[in-house]
Amino acid sequence: MDDAELSGDRLAKLLATYGVIGQRRTSYDQMGWQTPALSFTAQAFLFSIALAPDATRMSRVMASVLALVISLASIQLLRKHLYLELVDSATLSTLENAIAAYQDAGLQSPPHSSARLRKSGLVLESGEAVSPSWLESLDSSLLWTVALALFGLSAVVIIVTSIF
User: Fold this and answer.
1) How far is the C-alpha of 13 from the C-alpha of 158, rounded, in Å?
2) CA distance 31 to 79
3) Measured between alpha carbons, how far is 9 from 7 in angstroms, rounded to an integer?
4) Are the C-beta atoms of residues 42 and 70 closer than 8 Å to each other?
5) Which pLDDT tens digit goes with each residue over 112-155?
């Protein structure tokens, strides 16, 4: 095999790897945001049991304990998915650089640029910076984590008031 064939083979492998990791990154991103939505659905059901006027003390405590467990598990799962998405974003950024080294024109506007770059704001082709507003710049994963923690705290309050 000559150098051109080796380079072509390496580029093909890099592109295949890029595609697989890109799909996986997208899956982690989607699962990360599905987690709190599904958690809120489950917790709404459990809180409807825990706060029902005719619920027994035991059913209130059990439903609240389950809501607390779901809240904590959802926080961990949300954070894990977002961490894995960040790892894959960094890997894709490295692959983009390696692929660009094998291509004449390089990659333009790669879809999986670094998460830090995406978070910092958008720069248009004209060079004009488009910065997010204060609301858009808030860390959504942190907000969702706090919201899930508030559900967990609410479950603890119901447990304590039901027992005492």
Assistant:
1) 55
2) 11
3) 5
4) yes
5) 555 555 555 566 556 666 677 778 778 888 999 999 999 999 99
For residue 160, pLDDT over 50 is answered with: yes
| Residue of 38, 44, 32 lying closest to 139 (CA atoms) | 32
Q: Distance from CA of residue 60 to its chain's centroid? A: 32
Q: How far apart are CA 59 and CA 47, in angstroms?
A: 11
pLDDT recorded at residue 51? 96
E-only strand ranges, the chain: 122-123, 129-130
Task: Please list, in sequence order, all residues whose beta carbon lies within 8 angstroms of the beta carbon of residue 121, skipping any fewer than 6 positions away.
Answer: 129, 130, 131, 132
**Distance from C-alpha of 63 to C-alpha of 56, rounded to nearest angstrom:** 11
- Of the pLDDT bands very low, low, confident and very high (cuts 50, 70, 90), residue 38 is very high
| CB 81, CB 28: distance < 8 Å | yes
Written as six digits, the tokens of 45 are: 């059901």
C-alpha to C-alpha distance for 25 and 29, rounded to whole angstroms: 6
The one-letter amino acid at 64: S
Residue 109, pLDDT above cutoff 50: no
pLDDT in tens, 60-95: 999 999 999 999 999 999 999 989 988 898 888 888
